[in-house]
Prior knowledge:
- This protein has helices spanning 15-26, 32-39, 43-55, 91-99, 125-136; strands at 75-83, 104-109, 116-122, 142-150.
- The chain is an alpha+beta fold.
Amino acid sequence: MSLSDQDPSARPLDDVDRALIAHLERDGRISNSELAALCGIAESTCHKRVRALVASGVITGFHAEVDPAALGLNLEALIAIRLHAHARGDLRRFQSYLEEFPATRHVYFVAGDRDFLLHVAVRDAAELRALVSDTLSVREEVAATNTSLIFDHSPRHR
């Protein structure tokens, strides 16, 4: 078995793996032949390596990045959430609760004086207010929230 046929989890990532990952992060729809050419490897090797990176969990998925405004979701915000001490025993359940909101874009479990950072996209300020005041803040687990509006952001790769 050659090195390129091995499971990446059984060996450290090499420069070719890192190049494959970098190109796929920039463009998850790149063709195998284009990816292979950019990385200087054979198409069959490229295909095997990408498959192995997916199988080992290094690459966790492929997705489309959608502009929320194109869907009528014109306001984005980050909501920092602090739970009461007694509610910290079941953090995964609360995280799952946050993930179920239609407005949820990302949920981060964080260290520091807050427990979660929730990235949401909503139609307008009224919808954001309802989410924070009428949905989150009334939960018995929630000790406090702090909302920051997102004026603009840049994706990691373009």
